Amino acid sequence: MTVCDMKSVLQRIGYMMSCWLSCPRHEQISAGPTENHIATLLKPGDVLLVEGSSRFSVVIKYLTQSSWSHAALYVGDEHARRLGAQGGECFIEADVAEGVRMIGLSEFNGCHLRICRPVGLRGSEVEALIQFAGSRLGYRYDLHNIIDLARYFLPLPPVPQHWRKHFLTLGSGDPTRAICSTLIAQAFQSIYYPILPIENDTLATSADALGTSDLLLTQRHYSLFTPRDFDLSPYFEIVKPRLMNGFDAHQLHWQKPSD
Q1: pTM score, two decimals?
Q2: What is the average per-residue pLDDT within 91-105?
């Protein structure tokens, strides 16, 4: 067997493994229909967090100690058409098996969701953000280390918390390349919008004469970002559909407990 043949075999094995990891688990509790709740509230540039039900999602939840296992970037109908989307596709996501692709909101039906919205972006910045992510459509991911993720399902001793990040930074074949948040983090970093930047000592500026100064921020490497970081970020607004639609607790109807 030649080197090329061996590489092809390994790629097929990796793809089959990724498909197995992408399969949903039957015990997942459905959150019910989602489209009517959030479809009218989404804005281009929003990050949609998803509590997935696949085996791969379980790995991400374990590694990040978070309920959010997936993230997708909402581009809106107009931008989607420019990118050649069809049939209501309005999100860009990085799928572990299929790579970077466009999908519709219906793909998340039955999942718990959260909308994370960047604040204060100009129209040109949203355009650049979506263009960056759209230019990655069709990219395939290096699945070399997909077995490193699958082994979390084996009856091995749990990995100490301080070692978990090391499994997310394994180099050219690292599993973060198959994690959706990496692509979205790169897109936001391309327009210098903060997610969870490193805050260094204050940077002296010409404004010091007025008694003001700014923090000098450093971008974290995009491979270190996971879906929950958009939830934790102080720079993203959490949009809750039920509250945005004029929620009034006094209008709720409660079933009285039986005697």
Answers
A1: 0.74
A2: 89
